[in-house]
């Protein structure tokens, strides 16, 4: 079965989009956790946008959200800079990802991406190379391993899927199928096969995966184990994406040990000014660069409210980070604040991206 169209998969993505802009418009009533998160995102975005464009952007001309594009528990930044005469260079849509030692903007290689109407932007149903696809109006963007690019520029394959479809349907079918189950299973397997072609899976890899669904499969070991595990991860992601399209599943973010206390609305701007310059942040073995320190501080600022930290407590921590007060001083005023801080820091460091 060669040359099966992958267009059906691309069309189905449109059904699965969760528009980021629509979510913003729906947040009419007060949502303190979201407001705290958005405030952190705006502060980080103001720094990164100024560096990206060479000029500070007025506060009323941009908005920003934290969005976990690779589901690793550590948020990327989704930013929109408004300008009626936008040239698509210093305004429009931006996505910043912490990769290695630096934050990088990752949409700039797609022609016209910045000019996309935010109301026509959303996540796709599938992942590629670890990041969720990104729908920019009519353009589906996929992750290259380094940045987002137009998915139509990625190589696809034309595979013989007869054996895979038979094995897939057999593995998913019940001994006594209910009415309509056979058609549903066939649709799920066809979706997976189409996606395998879309991501450029080789015939040898498809045959290996097909064999793994049968009996007496010898699981690769030694030097071949790494490639086998990568294939399994690709297959798992394909299965989840097809489940998203059918409404049977959804992408799950990595576990993050948030605090469980009711949040108060906090002004974290002063803390975020002080935190990245603090030596014990910059020299932590998981940071080591100004951008990584900024990312860690953003995470800490977002997590402190979940530990029950109040504005008074956050202001004390800001003084502490500025080296204006000592451990003894801060503990004398709030015996729990350093414990709350350490819990937030440990949670963030546990999910912090590797260099």
From TrEMBL:
<protein>
    <submittedName>
        <fullName>Uncharacterized protein</fullName>
    </submittedName>
</protein>
<keyword id="KW-0732">Signal</keyword>
<feature type="signal peptide">
    <location>
        <begin position="1"/>
        <end position="23"/>
    </location>
</feature>
């Amino acid at each position: 079965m060669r040359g099966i169209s992958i267009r059906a998969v691309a069309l189905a993505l449109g059904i699965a989009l969760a528009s980021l802009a629509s979510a913003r418009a729906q947040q009419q009533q007060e949502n303190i956790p979201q407001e705290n998160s958005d405030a952190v995102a705006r502060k980080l975005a103001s720094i990164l946008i100024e560096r990206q464009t060479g000029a500070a952007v007025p506060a009323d001309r941009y908005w920003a959200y934290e969005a976990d594009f690779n589901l690793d528990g550590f948020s990327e930044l989704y930013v929109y800079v408004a300008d009626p005469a936008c040239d698509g260079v210093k305004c429009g849509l931006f996505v910043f990802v912490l990769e290695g030692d630096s934050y990088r903007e990752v949409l700039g290689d797609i022609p016209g991406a910045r000019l996309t109407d935010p109301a026509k932007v959303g996540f796709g149903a599938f992942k590629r190379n670890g990041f969720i696809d990104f729908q920019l109006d009519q353009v589906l963007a996929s992750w290259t391993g380094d940045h987002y690019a137009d998915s139509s520029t990625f190589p696809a394959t034309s595979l013989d899927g007869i054996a895979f479809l038979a094995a897939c349907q057999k593995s998913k079918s019940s001994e006594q199928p209910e009415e309509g189950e056979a058609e549903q299973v066939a649709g799920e397997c066809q979706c997976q096969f189409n996606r395998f072609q879309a991501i450029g899976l080789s015939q040898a890899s498809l045959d290996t995966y097909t064999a793994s669904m049968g009996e007496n499969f010898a699981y690769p070991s030694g030097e071949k184990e790494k490639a086998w595990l990568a294939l399994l991860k690709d297959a798992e992601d394909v299965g989840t994406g097809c489940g998203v399209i059918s409404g049977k599943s959804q992408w799950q973010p990595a576990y993050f040990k948030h605090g469980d206390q009711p949040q108060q609305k906090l002004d974290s701007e002063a803390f975020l000014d002080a935190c990245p310059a603090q030596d014990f942040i910059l020299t932590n073995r998981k940071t080591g660069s100004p951008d990584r320190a900024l990312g860690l501080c953003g995470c800490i600022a977002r997590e402190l409210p979940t530990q029950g930290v109040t504005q008074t407590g956050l202001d004390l921590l800001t003084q502490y980070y500025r080296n204006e007060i000592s451990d003894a001083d801060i503990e004398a005023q709030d015996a729990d604040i350093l414990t709350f801080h350490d819990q937030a820091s440990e949670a963030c460091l546990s999910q912090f991206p590797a260099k």
